[in-house]
Amino acid sequence: MELIWIPISVLGALLQAVRLAGQKSLNVRLSAMVTTYVRAFFGLPLILVYLFAVKTATGQPFPEIHATFLLYALGASIAQVAGTVLLIKLFTLRNFAVGTTLPKTDTMMTAIIGSLLFSEVISGAGWIAIALTLAGVLLLTAARTGLKAFTAWKPTLIGIGTALGFCFSYLFLREASLSLGTGDFLIRAACTVVAVVGLQAVFLGGWLLYREPEGLKAMFPDWRLCGFVGVTSALGSICWFTAMTLQNASYVRSVGQVEAIFALLISYFYFKERVNKAELGGIAVIVAGVLLFLL
Known about the structure:
mainly alpha
């Protein structure tokens, strides 16, 4: 049970890779804000079902909800929306590969900021593992796009902003879950994911109702794809929140770098794209970093 957070993180990474593909398709027809809202609107019902399933299966009462928990949940909610909106904006840029790789620097940001300002306690081996997984992702990108691509300032700045948004969302949600004093990791993670996604559904939905009412209506003709994004997002959030209740946010996100490997495998098997030796080297470095967490 001590290392159960690792397979949960890997599953979360797989679901995220699939969900991002769906969001990229949605963004062709919907704005960045509406595409972001799809996650909350279509995912919240499944998350609520999960919460009550956990409560029924474990027989535990709901933890006491207090102001500190709600503040952390609100911080995670806002930071996640900001990060997702910026990430979706990257879909419209030519340097998509670079722009979507730079957000992966959220692992190192989470480790540094979490150690300085939050409750992250990282061992020497942990720092090495974080650095290895990040280096592997950057190597994968450099192998496909070349180092010169990283000089494109617009996707670089948006990518770094995306990483910061996700970094704070991870740290806030872990603090929110830890602030719930009672219950095991399942019920605390379930309550946290409901609070974060529920807050997003309320404040982002209200903003869109005022600013983009036609955009909200535009979701429903695409209900199948929106439902797919909502379900994969809900399941992915459950995985991430559960793993981060059990382990440091920076460790969880480092293992989550295997998402880059899943993306490469999809390119190879589905799109029939070739994989070069540098990309294989990047995969090896990522795997080495993940294996360090098993030691």
